[in-house]
């Protein structure tokens, strides 16, 4: 398929420029001050899909931000690939840690990206990766057309829990009928070690509030005699892990399935250097659940992490005060079989039960979602594998990832299809962090690999029938 590569080579600068235009729109879904930019970004995706070759595009309103839909149906008898991605991005804070402004993309070289990387919020997660699919469609259209039908569903609320996408998917199962779902919103091991994500963790996210006295108090006049909500909250949080770093919530591990010895042995096939890992983070040791390796801890084991904690006086200087309230945001990453609603319930029951007299505790659930796992011997993975062999010269390693894309489990439930997670980012691309970036190599390699997946999947699906 060298016509594809020569088309990409000829047009790569324009592809990058077009991605830059999309990145310049600050589509931050979490911050209501940016909602007009959300509309602009959604419209830009509609236009890009139409220009790439979709014969039908729609801006589908939801109770939140619009979902972009596009399709090119060439023959109902042929298989259909549904591409999912998101045009919303995480807030760029803290701004002062960015070397260049987050919404002014710039290409700079790094050790891992000697050909240059695009630095900007959303460069990798997920505008850059989502845009690869739009450009892959253009590439196919200019070189004989797509070998199958294609549908796109690009949402604007992934970073805030995809609440309205669920309603949309449940209401549009006919429109979204497909044979496989294709997503680039994860990573791969290294630019010369391609991998495909075969698992995602689920999520239960809660916010807790501990209330003590009815007002902030002088810590001299009252200190020692009343419960200090911050002292209590930190004590309660500390008790959520035991000495082996296992989570102490009763029932938390009940549904967690133990991997077989063979499955655990597969981790040995994943190239991983603990030393490089520690060095890249400037830590002198890793930390986690006893009895599991680092790769296992960050993929197949459930976790509980405080994402933010606040209360009392945090301004300049010292203020002697016992705050009336203390707060924390807590996320639990879940593994297959754990149910997010059940885990949220277990958390609420446990956390309220460990509160001592003298404080009241309120737990507010935020979003949740289920884990996902696929088997590398399935047709979907095998088609993807063939595509990577053509463009990387080697087969991708199946890797279970620690991140979450809650909608993937919902796709399986509602649309009965498997998702292939063809991620082209690197863990070091700093998604959600300052100086997020995406390699130019990765962007172009993605555009090159995707059409091969369409080709192999269509062929294998037809042979299978
Ligand atoms: N693209 C990420 C998820 C991801 C990244 C999975 C890398 C695997 C590897 C996605 O945009 C994301 O950030 N998801 C959130 C969950 C969501 C409910 C806010 C996450 O994982 O924290
Ligand atoms: Mn993402
Ligand atoms: Mn994200």
Explain what the structure shows:
By secondary structure, the chain is of the alpha+beta class. It has two domains: 3-200 and 371-464, Aminopeptidase, CATH 3.40.630.10; 202-256 and 302-369, Alpha-Beta Plaits (2-Layer Sandwich), CATH 3.30.70.360. It has twelve helices and 18 strands. It has helices spanning 2-23, 35-52, 127-141, 163-171, 229-238, 261-265, 274-281, 294-297, 340-353, 379-392, 407-415, 440-463, and strands spanning 56-60, 67-72, 80-86, 106-108, 117-119, 149-155, 180-183, 195-200, 202-211, 217-218, 303-311, 321-322, 325-334, 360-369, 372-373, 397-400, 419-421, 437-439. Helix 1 packs across helix 3 and helix 10 crosses helix 12. Bound molecules: ligand BES and manganese (II) ion (2 copies). One manganese (II) ion (MN) binds next to loops. One manganese (II) ion is lined by residues 90, 125, 159, 431-432.
Brief sketch in words of this structure:
The chain has helices at 2-23, 35-52, 127-141, 163-171, 229-238, 261-265, 274-281, 294-297, 340-353, 379-392, 407-415, 440-463, and strands at residues 56-60, 67-72, 80-86, 106-108, 117-119, 149-155, 180-183, 195-200, 202-211, 217-218, 303-311, 321-322, 325-334, 360-369, 372-373, 397-400, 419-421, 437-439. It has 465 residues and is α+β, with helices and mostly antiparallel strands.
